[in-house]
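Q: Convert this sequence to structure tokens.
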Amino acid sequence: MDAFVEMSAGLTGFTAEELRSTGLVELYAGLAADASPAELIELWYTGVWRGEIPSARAYAEGLAWKAIGVAAPGTAAPGFGSWERRPPRGSQR
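A:
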């Protein structure tokens, strides 16, 4: 499992700890046994494996969302009145 995580870290640019924190290492390692590097990158960033979403968590934990600093749409409520607060300084619009 460590070899899979280290290879994934090298491909994605996220640390092994960040990948482990998704809770998807075991699922992804099982799916991606014969994956190309491009397929593995797509899996980690989008949560999609060969046209299918293997779990709801895969969508929510996609690295694309983490890379842009937002929660996946529909996975976290911003809270009542959040539209009144300015975004944190330096956030993208």
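Residues 10 and 16 are 9 Å apart (CA to CA).
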